[in-house]
Design brief:
The complex is a heterodimer of chains A (473) and B (292). Chain A is of the alpha/beta class and 473 residues long. Chain A is 57% helix and 7% strand. Chain B has 3 domains: 136 residues, P-loop containing nucleotide triphosphate hydrolases (Rossmann fold, 3-Layer(aba) Sandwich), CATH 3.40.50.300; 37 residues, no CATH class; 81 residues. In chain B, strand 6 and strand 7 form a beta hairpin. The interface between A and B is large, with 44 and 46 residues.
Chain lengths: 473, 292
């Protein structure tokens, strides 16, 4: 029992979760009090004692699934809890064993799935998911392919979209006809949720088989996924993008709260003589308690100029979204986007208080193409200079976003120099790793020499750090 | 050691008895908190019943609820104890005529009658069973967190003039956090961690039925489905469980037997509190032309 737990903790640490000694002991003590044959409670106990951060929860879930699916053999016979362990693991063995049974045709399987999905019979679904995997995934022992490949193969054969359409049809036959658009929407969402559950079952089945094939360690290694704030903007998958999207808002909110708190407590204003004298009266005229004026926090004005050509579009989108979500921390935020032409997009953000919507309008409505729609920093910058030079003041922080890949056009770097003389700060954020700067058509160094700082900004963590720095002034 | 619950199932039953529906995770963690005598740190979005959990625990175990609401600037004097300065002054002044020795006065004015107890000390000294709720602990500064540590791990308070006061019994301690900032490792290590998220369809439906008993099954199901649908949208503030319950009540008052797009359009403001959210949800859920 202890060995099992130690192995599990070890695995968690390998996956990057910080598990301290005390937490480890707590988990052991917790198990003494519980009936560990109840898998839900067992998992809750380990989760509550070992994982203290919600972000780490998905990693914990995967490791838990992987680890306790494999631990079916080699249960210690002398362990007084051995029977309970069998009970716990038996639930699983049965599920994976069921799938090996008779060969079903694709159509038969689909029919059975539909029936199970209509009644939401979870045991049946799990068995069918296992059957689908053994039939369609074509898993070969020892083949070094990731789980996503098998998942893709299985799902292609099952065709969830078709299943969803057939579910609606089946519901109609049973007399459940949606009365209006709303009812139809709710029904469709219900079926989507059920299909998502099926998808998760298939995923965990594949994972289980991979573990059995390759062993826990190899599997745990491939499962180490980066946390949302460490995902690279330029190479994020669609799911990671969605995760990022969801992470932004809470992040900005907590950042704003932190900044406001810091601003309130940081350097007090000048001595308020009148108040100090008044306070001194309660100490018999001794100014024991000096009073200070409230400082006027100076909030910088922000101008963002972003390259939104294909390669860096998602980076620009996140940064704009982030900056506007933080707008309350700045006295004013204006923004421009460019490819080879440049267009001010502040109006989109002012019109609606929904940032996602505004970003969408930036992508579809902004007029950013001048000649051919390939990045031309030089032209965009000189146009910006002509039109807006006078609006840049000593209060303005200018932020340029882009990879500085200029397609061998003229750099017009003098624009930045001239703007820098007028502005408070000029920064450049580049979504490429520092090592790639100034390779190929990147002319980062030309621009960087006119900036107060050029930063690598590849993930939310770096972006957050940068925004904290400029909001502090 | 007296334990409050015999099994995880009993936790579920007793909480259900006071209209709080706990799932296996919540019940498991509460059970462990009781057995291991550890505080529970509850995190999750606003309005999923974090504070409610503490209240339900106090009702179900018949304990008194002591609540410490955290805020920025909370200090020892407001959380632990404070000397009653005015009373001490009076005591010194009334002594002037009697010429008592200073040592006596000093030992007198730093004694129990001059101590003002604040929630944490009150919880420690209580004789009867207690549930201690430390609400929104993420609002205090990170330095202030430290004063909670001694209380949470050993359930004692050190007062320089009186010595260490040790609690007579271990209360159930629930801390809640809205996650506006990262809590310190030291604090987290001392707690069991529980994350409560929005409930799934089934559980939300059950909650509505328990809290609004007059509602019929059909309508509760529809309410839960619409709310889930709204939570899927990208909103500033998704509807919380209490807002779902309010909405269900509103629908009952209006005598609704079935939810139609028009009714949603008219009552959305019960669920959503931002104008932009309401507009967005209306656009998604209510087909064009139906809006009044």
């Amino acid at each position: 029992m202890l060995d099992v737990l130690q192995g599990f903790v070890h695995e968690l640490r390998d996956a990057g979760l910080p598990v301290s000694m005390t937490e480890n002991l707590d988990a052991m003590r917790a198990l003494e009090h519980l009936d560990i044959s109840d898998r839900e409670v067992f998992k809750a106990a380990l989760g509550a004692t070992l994982v203290k951060h919600h972000r780490h929860r998905p990693a914990f879930d995967t490791v838990f699934d992987v680890y306790f699916s494999l631990y079916s053999r080699g249960v210690d016979a002398e362990d007084p809890n051995a029977e309970e362990w069998e009970a716990l693991l038996g639930q699983q063995g049965e599920a994976s064993g069921g799938g090996a049974g008779g060969e079903l045709s694709r159509e038969e399987l689909a029919e059975m799935l539909l029936t199970a999905l209509m009644t939401m019979d979870r045991d049946e679904l799990r068995r069918l998911a296992a059957a689908a995997v053994s039939q369609f995934a074509g898993m070969e022992p020892g083949r070094p392919v990731g789980g996503t490949y098998y998942l893709y193969r299985t799902l292609r054969q099952l065709d969830l979209d078709e299943l969803s359409a057939r579910l609606v049809g089946r519901a109609r036959e049973e007399g459940d006809v949606p009365a209006d658009a709303l009812a139809a929407r709710l029904q469709a969402e219900e079926f989507q949720t059920r299909l998502r559950e099926l998808r998760e079952l298939i995923e965990s089945e594949i994972r289980r088989r991979l573990v059995a094939d390759r062993g826990v360690e190899a599997m745990a290694r491939t499962l180490r996924k980066p946390l949302p704030e460490d995902v690279d903007f330029m190479h994020a998958s669609r799911e990671e993008m969605l995760a990022l999207q969801r992470a932004i808002y809470p992040l900005t909110r907590s950042l704003a709260a932190r900044l406001a708190q810091r601003r309130r407590r940081r350097h007090r204003g000048s001595l308020d003589f009148r108040k100090t004298v008044r306070a001194s009266l309660s100490y018999g005229g001794v100014p024991a308690e000096p009073k200070f004026r409230h400082p006027h926090p100076s909030r910088p004005e922000i101008m963002v100029v972003a390259d939104i050509s294909g390669s860096v579009a998602s980076f620009a989108r996140f940064t704009l979204q982030f900056v506007y979500a933080m707008a309350s921390q700045f006295s004013k935020v204006r923004s421009w986007v460019f490819i080879d032409g440049i267009d001010e997009v502040t109006r989109f953000f002012q019109d609606s208080d929904d940032v996602t919507d505004a970003v969408h309008r930036v992508n579809t409505e902004a007029d950013v193409v001048w000649v051919d729609g390939h990045s031309d920093y030089g032209h965009a910058f000189s146009a910006f200079h002509d039109r807006h030079e006078r609006e840049v003041t000593k209060k303005t922080s200018l932020i340029f976003l882009g990879d500085a890949r200029n397609n061998y056009h003229a750099s017009q770097a003098w624009v930045l120099g001239s703007l820098r003389e007028r502005a408070r700060h000029v920064y450049w954020l580049n979504p490429e790793p520092r090592g790639y700067w100034d390779t190929g058509d990147s002319i980062m160094a030309d621009y960087a020499s006119f900036c107060d700082g050029a930063y690598e900004c590849r993930n939310l963590r770096q972006l957050e750090r940068f925004v904290t720095a400029i909001a502090d002034g | 050691m007296a334990t409050r619950f015999a099994s995880v199932d009993e936790v579920v039953q007793r909480l259900r008895g006071v209209d709080y529906l706990a799932d296996a995770t919540i019940a498991g963690v509460v059970f462990l908190a009781d057995r291991l005598e550890k505080p529970v740190l509850v995190e999750g979005p606003a309005g999923v019943g974090k504070t409610e959990l503490a209240k339900a625990l106090s009702r179900s175990t018949g304990s008194r609820l002591i609540r410490l609401q955290c805020y920025e600037g909370l200090d020892e004097a407001k959380a632990l104890y404070e000397w009653n300065y005015k009373k001490q002054l009076l005591r010194i002044q009334s002594d002037r005529e009697h010429e008592t020795a200073w040592a006596d006065v000093e030992s007198d004015i730093f004694s129990e009658p001059f101590l003002l107890t604040r929630p944490l000390l009150e919880a420690i000294r209580a004789e009867e069973p207690i549930v201690l709720l430390i609400d929104e602990v993420d609002r205090v500064e990170i330095e202030t967190e430290a004063l909670l540590l001694e209380v949470l791990s050993d359930f004692q308070v050190s007062i320089p003039e009186l010595g260490t006061i040790v609690g007579t019994q271990r209360p159930l301690v629930v801390l809640t956090s809205n996650n506006t900032r990262e809590l310190s490792e030291a604090l987290k290590r001392r707690c069991l961690y529980l994350h409560i998220d929005y409930p799934d369809l089934e559980r939300e439906k059950d909650i509505v039925r328990v809290r609004v008993p007059e509602i019929d099954d059909e309508l509760a199901e529809q309410v839960a489905r619409v709310v889930r649908s709204i939570r899927e949208l990208e909103l500033k503030k998704a509807p919380s469980i209490s807002e779902t319950i309010d909405w269900a009540r509103t629908l009952l008052y209006l005598g609704t037997s079935e939810i139609s797009p028009e009714i949603i359009g008219e009552t959305l403001h019960v669920l959503l509190k931002y104008q932009s959210d309401i507009l967005k949800a209306r656009k998604e859920l209510v087909p064009a032309g139906d809006t009044p």
